Amino acid sequence: MMVIPDNIKAIIVNRLRGNISPEERKALEDWQCQQSVGDEELAEYDKVWEESGNLLSQPHFDIAKAWQCVDQQLKEARVDENAGGRVVRIRRYWRGAAAAAAIILVAAGSWLFFHQTGRQQVTLTKVTADATNKYFRLPDSSLVLLRKGATITYSAAFGHSDRLLTLSGDAFFDVAPYEKIPFRIQTERAVIKVLGTSFVVNNSVNTDRVVVVTGKIMFTDKIKPENKCIVSAKEEISITGHTLEKKNVSDSNYLAWQTGILRFTNTPLKVVVKELSSYYGKTIKLNDTLKTGSVTLTASFGKQPLKEVLEEIAVITGLQYRHQEDSVTIY
């Protein structure tokens, strides 16, 4: 049976009741994509919902009656005598029973949520740093700095019954300590759990990376939760595919997008261009000779246009550069 977050359970119930909002539908589709849940799996819930007689629409949710639906499915399950039929029917039986049990849990929890609080749908807050980096405080007083283009999403329960948010892009977090409700961040590949700390999350196309500034975090592969690691201050961890790599922080520029300052000390040029590419959002490459060379750079750049930085690198190293349509090549 699928393990479904509480906010997704409530959205599924709204879907079954026919009053799902466009925002909730988008959140459900994103969750399906992240967890590889197909429409056919959600269809199991539709089927059981129809057979249950739309119990949630009743003014008083009857859990006993809901379980009767499960019992009825158990009674109707028949095992054929031949071996082939036995396997098929047992699988169908357990899948149906699991779906029915799940829908009862979803419906019961959602009935309490809707009828005790009077709310009819999950409210999601989405914050995006559109034009520039964006500072703001979460409901639990944690401080967040979103890098330009980054987005976080969290429910109305944040700071009350949970502290779970979803992040796309890069962000710095200074988390308010509250041991009873751990702070959790979901990215495309990982779940980051903290109690009170500050750290940076880089969420890119192929890799998720966390640099811990103070405190500790638990970093967990979202698809393979047994693949996890504790990361302490001045350490960083990254995940590519399902491979975790933990090491001491050697990158002095992990907060450059926040401070606007880039510092390099005898740094290999291939590392310099990688960090410049990340900071300026433009592809910067070395020609084939420099890729295998030993050229290093010692310099500092403070909130300068890319053209000025390239000019200074050319003066310091004696190299040249050329602009192409969407990239720069140093040679």
TrEMBL record:
The record places domain FecR protein at: 128-217
One of the Pfam families matching this protein, by short name? FecR
InterPro entries, per the entry: FecR, FecR_C, Ferrdict_sens_TM
Which GO terms label this protein's molecular function in UniProt?
A: sigma factor antagonist activity
Q: Could you list this entry's UniProt keywords, alphabetically sorted.
A: Membrane, Transmembrane, Transmembrane helix
Q: Where are the transmembrane segments?
A: 93-114
Q: Which residues form the Protein FecR C-terminal domain?
A: 262-330
PANTHER family listed in its UniProt record: PERIPLASMIC SIGNAL SENSOR AND SIGMA FACTOR ACTIVATOR FECR-RELATED, PROTEIN FECR
Protein name, UniProt field: FecR protein domain-containing protein
